[in-house]
Write a structure and sequence with these properties.
Helix content of chain A: 55-70%
Shape of chain B: elongated
Number of domains of chain A: 1
Radius of gyration of chain B: 34 Å
Largest sheet of chain B: 7 strands, antiparallel
Strand content of chain A: under 5%
Low-confidence stretches of chain A: none
Number of helices of chain B: 23
Mean pLDDT of chain B: 85
Distance between the termini of chain A: 25 Å
Oligomer: heterodimer
Helix content of chain B: 40-55%
Number of strands of chain B: 20
Strand content of chain B: 15-25%
Shape of chain A: globular
Number of helices of chain A: 20
Order of helices and strands of chain A: HHHHHHHHEEHHHHHHHEEHHHHH
Structural class of chain B: alpha+beta
Number of strands of chain A: 4
Largest sheet of chain A: 2 strands, antiparallel
Mean pLDDT of chain A: 92
Chain lengths: 581, 692
Amino acid sequence: MNWNSFIQSFIFILVIVILAKPLGIYMARIYIGKKAGLNVWFAPVERWTYKLSGIDPKREMPWKQYAISAMIFNIIGLVAVYAIQRFQSHLPLNPMSMPPVAPDLSFNTAVSFATNTNWQSYGGESTLSYFTQMIALTVQNFVSAATGMAVLVAVIRGFIQKQTETIGNFWVDLVRSTLYILLPLAIILSVVLVSQGVVQTFVPSVKATLVQSTKDAAGKEVLEQIIALGPAASQIAIKQLGTNGGGFFNVNSAHPLENPTPLSNFLEVISIILISAALCYTYGYMVKDRRQGWAILAAMLIIFIPCLLICMHFEQAGNPILNKLGVDQHSSILQPGGNMEGKEARFGITNSAIWAATTTAASNGSVNSMHDSYMPLGGLIPMWLMQLGEIIFGGVGSGLYGMVAFIIIAVFIAGLMIGRTPEYLGKKIEAYEMKMASLMILIPPILVLAGTAISVIIPAGTSSILNPGTHGFSEILYAFSSASNNNGSAFAGLTTNTLFYNVAQGLAMFFARYWLLIPALAIAGSLSKKKIVPVSQGTLPTHTPLFIIFLVMVILIVGALTFFPALALGPIVEHLMMYHI
Amino acid sequence: MIKLHKSKSLFEPSIIGPAIIDSLKKLDPRHQFKNPVMFVVLVVSILTTGLWIQAMLGHGEAPASFILAITLWLWFTLVFANFSEAMAEGRGKAQAASLKKARRDTPAKKLSKPQYGSIHETVPATTLRKGDVVLVETGDFVPMDGEIIEGVASVDESAITGESAPVIREAGGDRSAVTGGTRVLSDWIVIRISSNPGETFLDRMIAMIEGAKRQKTPNEIALSILLAVFTIIFLLAAVTLLPFSIYSVISAGHGIPITVTVLAALLVCLIPTTIGGLLPAIGIAGMDRMIQANVIATSGRAVEAAGDVDVLLLDKTGTITLGNRQAVAFIPAEGVTVKILADAAQISSLSDETPEGRSIVVLAKEKYGIRERHIHELDAKFIPFTAQTRMSGVDLGNCCQIRKGAADAIEDYVKKLGGSFPEDLKANITSIAKSGGTPLVVAENEHVLGVIQLKDIVKGGIKERFAELRRMGIKTVMITGDNPLTAAAIAAEAGMDDFLAKATPETKLKLIREMQEGGRLVAMTGDGTNDAPALAQADVAVAMNTGTQAAKEAGNLIDLDSNPTKLIEIVEIGKQLLITRGSLTTFSIANDVSKYFAIIPAAFVGTYPALKALNIMHLATPESAVLSAVIFNAIIIILLIPLALRGVPYRPTKASRLLRDNLLIYGVGGIIAPFIGIKLIDMMLVTLHLVK
C-alpha cells in the first residue's frame, strides 16, 4: 500500500465521523419530536398521512403490537413486490416489453427487497420493467430501511423509558424515518448523482455503433452495443443511503451510468455508511449519554479500519503466482498495480477495497468491483464482515439493534466478572433479555452454516459453482453469509438464479431479518417495563476504552470461533496454497 | 459440640472418597440432562464408545487405539465435572450430617394448658404440631422451634450456632425465640410451638446445606442460556464440518473426510465444558462459603442478590456504635474548675451501674486523677434515676445534694432551690447535642457546676469498612431512633452516606420502598419483631439468630453469630460467586482459540497439506494434536476445582478496575494458557511414545 491509500482511507473515515454528529442529532430530534426544520415545514404532510391511513399517532403500542404491525406491513410489501413482478407485462412503464418474472425469482427478489437485503439473482436491465424498478423495488428500498430504523428507535425507547408497557407507535416511526430522513437525503443525493452523469430517464435503451467491431461467444460479428437506460439515479441514491444495495443495472455501482466519476463514487460510498454511523450518535443523544453513542461508533471503527486495511493490503500486494511469472504488480504512475482483476480502472485498488469493506460492514451489498476476483484474504474480509452479523455499522437501524444484542452479551459477561447482576444504561439484564439477545446472535450463523453445508453436498447446490475447489466453496459460503445477514452483495461466480438457490436464499433472508427483528422488539418491551438503576461506583461504565475493547473482543471471538473452520476450508486454505505451493 | 464455622481443607480425604463414587453415579443421563453442556458431552461420549466398539469389530473409521484414547478422555471430562460437583456437595453433606444429629427425636413435655404448673404428658417431639405448648426444664432439649410464653432460661445453642457460651432466652421482647435441638441449661421455659415437623429451622438448614432445594438462581439461568447458545453455535460449527470436509475431499481429489471421532473431539473441546462442568460446583460452593461465615441462606437467590446490593441499612446501636454512650469531656460552668466538676460528677455516679455512669467514673479517674471512692466511706445515699425526675445523684450527709440529668430537668431542679441556670452553659449544651453527643448537666444544690459530654462511640475500623463499601458502589444508611441532629453527627463520624432519624417500623418500611422504587436493591439487618415488615420488604434481609421468630421468618439470610456487620461479608460472598462464574466463562470461551489451532490443521492436513501452516504449536502428529486438545480440556476442569470451590478472590475496588484485572487473568490468560498446556501434553505424549 502507498500513502495515497492511507490518505484516501483516512479522509473517508474522517468525513463519516464528522457527518455522524449533525445527522445523528437531527435524526434524534425527529424521533423525539423536537423541532428540526423539516418536521416543522412538512408537519401537515405527516398529519395528512396519518389521517388518510386512519392512524392515531398518539397511540403507543406494546412490543407485540409493534412487532405485528411491522410484520404485516413488511409482508404486504413482500406480496406486492411479488405481484408486480409477475404482472409487469400488463403494467405501464415497460418500454422494453419485459416478460413476467419467473415465480421462484420473483419470490427471491420480493423477500430480498422487503428484508433490506437486495440480493439480486436477476440482472436489472434485462429482467425488470421501469415500473417494477420504481414502484416495487425503490419503494421497498425506502420502507425496508425505515422499518429497520423504526425498530431501532423502539429498542432505544426500551432503555429510556421506565415502567412503561409501550415502546412507541410503529407507523409514526416509519413515516418519520421516511419523510424526514430518507426522502430528503435521497433527493439531494440523486440530484448530485445526476450532475455526475448518472442516468434518470424513461427512455428505452439506446443502440450505439461500435467504433471497432467485436465477436460474441458464438463467433458472430457484433457491430452495435445496447446501452441500458432508465430512472437509475433515484433508485441508486436510496439503495446506498438505506443500506439496500440493489443496483439498477446488473453490475451495480461498477456500471458507468450508475457510478460514473470519482466524486460520484466517493458520495455513494459515504452514503452506504452515513446513516448507520450517524444512528450511533442518535442512540447516544436519545439515551442522554452521548458517550454511549461514541463508544459504539468507536467499537465499530476498531473492527472496521483494520479490516479495510487488510483487504486493501492483499489486493495491492497482487497475485503471488503472477509475481512468479515476472508480471510487474507494483503501483506506479502508469498503473495501479496489485490485483486489478474484476476492478474498474477508474476506481483502482484503494476505492474498490474501501467500497468492498464498507458495503459488507454496512449491510448494503452494492459493489463497484467484483468480490469474486479478490485475492483469497482480500475476499475473506467482506465475507467475515458479513458473518460478524452485520453489526459493524450494519443495516440502517438493524445494524445497531444487532449491536445492542452483542452489547447485552458483553455487559452480561462483564457484569458477572465484577460481581454484579449486569446492567446496561441502568436496565438490569436478566434471563429474558439474554434469551432474546442469544436468539439474535444465534440465528444468522445457523442460517449461514446450515445453508452452506446443504449446498456443498447436494447436486442442486454444487452444480451452480463455476470455479471448483476451495474458491467454489468460498462462493457458496459468501452467498449464504450475504443472504443470512441481509447484506445482498454477491461473490459472483455462482449461478444463483436456480430454483434451489432462489428458494433457499429467499428463506435465509426472510428468517434472518424477521427472526432478529422480533427478539429485538421483545428486548425493547422487556426493558421498557424495568426501573432504571441509578449509577454508582459499582456500576460498570460502558463508554470507557476498556469496555469498548471488551465488546470488540466478544464480537471478534464469537465471529472467529463460529466461522474459523469454514473460513479455513475456503479462503484461508486457498491463500496458503497460493503462497506455499 | 459441632462447630459450623470450622473450615475444612479443600481436599479432605473423608470428602474425596465419597465424591469419587458420587461422580460416577452422576453419569446418570437424568442427572446430566439438567446441564445442557455436559449432556452434549455425554451423548458424544456414548457415540465415540460405539465407534470404538465398531473399530474393535474391524470396521473402524480410525485406529481403535486412537478412538479409545479419545473416548476415555471424553468420559474423564464428564467424570471430572461430576467430581467437582460431588466435592462441593460433600462439604455440605458433612455439615448436614452433624446437624441431623441435633434433630434427635426428643421426648417433649406437652402441657394441657398454656401455663406453667399445669399437667403435662410426655410425647415424642415428632407428634407436636404448631400451636402446642410444651414445658422445657433444665437439661431438656427444646423439642421444636417455638416462642417462649413464660419463664426465662439459659440455653445452649451451640448445635446451631457453634457458639458454646449459653444465651438467655425469656418471654416477651426480642429474645423469645428458641430453636429445636438446643438445650436448656438452667431454669425452665414454657414454649408455644411455632412450626410443624419438617418445617423447622433445623430442617430448613439441613435442606439448604444438602442442596436438596437448590434451585437455579436468576443469574445462573441467564448464564445457562448463554452457555447453551455457545453450545449450539459450536455444535453447528462442528457438525457442518462433515459436509464441508466431504466437499473439500471431492474437489481436492485426495484425503479422507474428517472422522466422526475427530469431530466429536472438536465439539467437546469447543463447547464451554470448563464453565459448564464447574457451574454447579460454583453455586454450591458459594452457599458453602456462606455457611463457613455462619450465615444460613434460605435461598440461593438471596446469596446472589447480596452481590447486587446498592444500599445497606444498618442499625446504629451495636452495629455502628458500641452499645452505649460514654463520657468524653467535662465542661465546667463559669467560675467552676474542671476538677470540682469532675469530682462531683464522679461522686454522683459512684452507685450508678449503667454503662454511662461507669464511664463518668472512669473518665474522672483517668483524666483528672480523681480516686474512685466507695460510696459507703462518704456516708452517701444514692438517688436512682426515675422517669419522673429524669435525674440521678447522691445525697452526701446533710452537706449537699449532687444531681446529674438532662438540661431541662436540672434547670427545674436548681430553680426550685432558688438558683439559676448559667447562660454560658446553654451554648455548650447545644453544641454538644449538635455534635452527636448527649449533654448531662451536674448540679450541687442550687449551683450548676457544668456539663458532662456523653458520646456515642463509633466502633473502631467501621469507617474504613464503609469506605470499602463505597468503593464497591454500596451506599450506607444509618437507622436510629435518635433525633436528626445527633444522627447526622454520628453518621458523619462513621462515614455513612445517609441516615434515617427517629426511625419507626413504618418509616423504615417507607424508606426501603422508596429506594426500591428508585431501582435500588436494599439490604438490611434486624432482630426485633418490629423489624419484620422492613426485613420482609428488603431484597436481602439478614436476621440475627438471637432475634425473634418473626424476624427470622421475614429474613432470607440468618446470621448465626448475630453480628450486624456480617452483611459486608455476605455482600462479598455474593459478589465472589458471580465473579467466579463470569471469570470461568471467559476463560472457557477464550480457550477455544488454541483448540482450533490444534484440531483444524490436524483434521484437514490430509486434504489440504497447506493447512499445516496453521499448526503454529508444531504438534507432533494429527492424532497427538487432537488427543492433546481433548486431554487439556478434561484436565483443566480438575485443575480449576479449587478455584471453583474457593471462588475468585474479590477486592473492593472500582468496577472498571476489577473488570480489567479479571479480563487480563481469565481472558488473556485463557487465550494463552491452553497453547502452552496443549503443547506440553503433546510433548509428553510423544516422549512416552503414546502416539505415533
